[in-house]
Amino acid sequence: MSWLTDDPDDEEAYGEYDESDARVRPNPKGNRPRTKTRPTHEAAVPGRVLSVDRGRYTVLVGEGADPSANGGEHEITATTARELGRGAVVTGDVVDLVGDTSGDEGSLARIVRVHERRTLLRRSADDSDAVERIIVANADQMLIVVAAADPEPRERLVDRYLVAAFDVGIVPILCVTKTDLRDPADFLSAFAGLGVRVVLSRSDDPPIAELESLLVGHATVTVGHSGVGKSTLVNALTGSERAIGRVNAVTGRGRHTSSSSYSARVTDAAGATGWIIDTPGVRSFGLGHVDVAHVLGSFPDLAELAEDCPRGCTHLPDAPDCAIVEAVEAGRLGAAGVARLESFQRLLAALR
What we know:
Elements: H1 11-14, E1 45-53, E2 56-61, E3 74-80, E4 94-99, E5 109-114, E6 120-124, E7 132-137, E8 141-147, H2 155-168, E9 171-177, H3 185-189, E10 197-200, H4 208-215, E11 219-223, H5 230-238, E12 262-267, E13 273-278, H6 292-297, H7 300-306, H8 323-329, H9 334-351
């Protein structure tokens, strides 16, 4: 039967239906069919992400070039390409950009690629939550800022910062502010066995030169809950004028002054530079994502002893046949070993 008539005798006149007889309507919009092949963006421009704010990224391009030269170092605003997904870019990332990278008012570039990260500092909402919240990328140091008083220092929170640093291989530095209000010796004794560099800061005389010598040549992320003087130090080191938090006289807690992380350059008297990344003050630091083996790896002397521990050993005081505990009790690591073990076990307790 013909596809053009109901008359069975018309087959010879019209022929049988063939798919090639179907007319294809032209695409009125001129859209090309979708393809899975993505552009390579060979002409993309590299940049450093300085801050993130509601889907917009401040990115430094031409890092190190003369800002006065045509196309020299300058900041631009960018968004992310759809294929990267939401939350794929964080402060500290090194990225590739396309589009308008001039930095002119109203211009907008697009981040199309994120370079491999050297480190990634994370935290979870609480210890039972394995979902990670990324804080910053590519930091190699952590400046832990805590006040000797007003607000009171929180030993357990510092323990958690240290665990997070050890987990990803970031070198911690402990900075105690407001030492003119109270002697921090008792507080610092809890961390004596860790070998962490300690910097003391008075309210009226912050040790800017000492901190600069530690920060140049590095990317340092700052952590600490609100009111400890973290933003004050960052402002003094970078010459910025971001808001400074105050401590509530009733609760003894600080107010949040930074709502998102941002990077700023630190320059010493000789002109050497580094990056400091200020983060919002946090009152909790979940460690649900941390691998205990990474923390142990930050104690190479203890990690070597742990090779003789039974499988599944927790290395805590009540752990049976723990080779670390037995070695320290036998005096094989000397007096320093006792302090090292106590500090290590305290960090493990934070994970529990």
